[in-house]
Amino acid sequence: MASDDRERHFNLHTTPEVMAGVYANFATVSHSDYEFTLTFSRVDHEVEADEVPGVVVSRVSLSARAMQELIAAMEDNFSKWQTREGIKRLPETRPDFRNGE
Protein backbone atom coordinates (compact mmCIF):
# COMPACT_ATOMS: atom_id res chain seq x y z
CA MET A 1 0.00 0.00 0.00
CA ALA A 2 1.40 3.39 -0.98
CA SER A 3 1.81 5.94 1.79
CA ASP A 4 -0.85 8.19 0.18
CA ASP A 5 -3.44 5.36 0.29
CA ARG A 6 -3.50 4.97 4.06
CA GLU A 7 -6.11 6.70 6.17
CA ARG A 8 -4.62 9.45 8.29
CA HIS A 9 -6.14 11.22 11.28
CA PHE A 10 -5.12 14.72 12.24
CA ASN A 11 -4.74 15.70 15.87
CA LEU A 12 -4.71 19.49 15.73
CA HIS A 13 -4.42 21.79 18.74
CA THR A 14 -5.32 25.45 19.00
CA THR A 15 -5.76 28.24 21.51
CA PRO A 16 -9.21 29.45 22.59
CA GLU A 17 -8.54 32.75 20.80
CA VAL A 18 -7.85 31.03 17.49
CA MET A 19 -10.78 28.65 18.02
CA ALA A 20 -13.10 31.64 18.45
CA GLY A 21 -12.27 32.71 14.91
CA VAL A 22 -12.72 36.10 13.29
CA TYR A 23 -15.61 37.59 11.35
CA ALA A 24 -15.11 38.47 7.68
CA ASN A 25 -17.69 39.69 5.17
CA PHE A 26 -15.33 40.12 2.22
CA ALA A 27 -12.60 37.94 0.72
CA THR A 28 -10.14 38.18 -2.14
CA VAL A 29 -8.11 35.47 -3.82
CA SER A 30 -4.76 36.01 -5.52
CA HIS A 31 -2.07 33.67 -6.77
CA SER A 32 1.53 33.42 -7.82
CA ASP A 33 3.32 30.62 -9.65
CA TYR A 34 3.73 28.84 -6.31
CA GLU A 35 0.74 29.53 -4.09
CA PHE A 36 -2.75 30.95 -3.64
CA THR A 37 -3.48 33.61 -1.05
CA LEU A 38 -6.88 34.14 0.57
CA THR A 39 -7.33 37.51 2.27
CA PHE A 40 -10.33 37.86 4.57
CA SER A 41 -11.53 41.31 5.56
CA ARG A 42 -14.30 43.03 7.44
CA VAL A 43 -15.62 45.95 5.42
CA ASP A 44 -18.33 48.54 6.00
CA HIS A 45 -20.72 47.96 3.08
CA GLU A 46 -23.06 50.69 4.35
CA VAL A 47 -20.63 53.46 3.38
CA GLU A 48 -21.79 55.22 0.21
CA ALA A 49 -18.35 56.69 -0.62
CA ASP A 50 -16.22 55.51 -3.55
CA GLU A 51 -13.69 54.10 -1.09
CA VAL A 52 -15.01 51.40 1.24
CA PRO A 53 -13.23 51.24 4.61
CA GLY A 54 -12.21 47.89 6.02
CA VAL A 55 -9.63 45.88 7.90
CA VAL A 56 -7.87 42.63 7.00
CA VAL A 57 -8.66 40.05 9.69
CA SER A 58 -6.77 37.05 8.31
CA ARG A 59 -4.55 36.04 5.43
CA VAL A 60 -3.87 32.43 4.43
CA SER A 61 -1.46 31.13 1.79
CA LEU A 62 -1.98 27.66 0.31
CA SER A 63 -0.22 25.41 -2.15
CA ALA A 64 -2.07 24.70 -5.40
CA ARG A 65 -2.93 21.19 -4.18
CA ALA A 66 -4.27 22.49 -0.85
CA MET A 67 -6.33 25.08 -2.74
CA GLN A 68 -7.79 22.36 -4.98
CA GLU A 69 -8.75 20.30 -1.90
CA LEU A 70 -10.22 23.38 -0.21
CA ILE A 71 -12.39 24.14 -3.25
CA ALA A 72 -13.66 20.53 -3.31
CA ALA A 73 -14.44 20.64 0.43
CA MET A 74 -16.21 23.99 0.10
CA GLU A 75 -18.31 22.77 -2.86
CA ASP A 76 -19.27 19.63 -0.91
CA ASN A 77 -20.22 21.56 2.21
CA PHE A 78 -22.11 24.24 0.26
CA SER A 79 -24.09 21.54 -1.55
CA LYS A 80 -25.00 19.93 1.79
CA TRP A 81 -26.02 23.32 3.19
CA GLN A 82 -28.20 24.05 0.13
CA THR A 83 -29.92 20.67 0.50
CA ARG A 84 -30.59 21.24 4.20
CA GLU A 85 -31.90 24.77 3.56
CA GLY A 86 -34.14 23.46 0.77
CA ILE A 87 -35.60 20.83 3.09
CA LYS A 88 -36.30 23.49 5.74
CA ARG A 89 -38.31 25.47 3.18
CA LEU A 90 -40.50 22.57 2.01
CA PRO A 91 -44.17 23.09 2.84
CA GLU A 92 -45.44 20.93 5.64
CA THR A 93 -47.98 18.33 4.61
CA ARG A 94 -50.50 16.62 6.80
CA PRO A 95 -51.20 12.92 6.39
CA ASP A 96 -54.34 12.17 4.42
CA PHE A 97 -56.14 9.77 6.72
CA ARG A 98 -58.82 9.13 4.10
CA ASN A 99 -56.24 7.26 1.99
CA GLY A 100 -54.85 5.25 4.90
CA GLU A 101 -51.75 7.42 5.34
Topology, number of strands: 3
The percent range for helix content is 25-40%
Q: Please, how many helices? A: 2
Give, in order, the helices and strands: HEEEH
Shape: extended
Portion in strands: 15-25%
Helix-and-strand structural type: alpha+beta
Whole-Å distance between the termini? 53 Å
The Cα radius of gyration reads: 22 Å
Poorly predicted runs of 5 or more residues:
none
Strand order of the biggest β-sheet: 1-2-3
Oligomer: single chain
Average predicted confidence as pLDDT: 88
Largest sheet: 3 strands, antiparallel
Pfam families: DUF3467
InterPro entries: DUF3467
Protein name: DUF3467 domain-containing protein
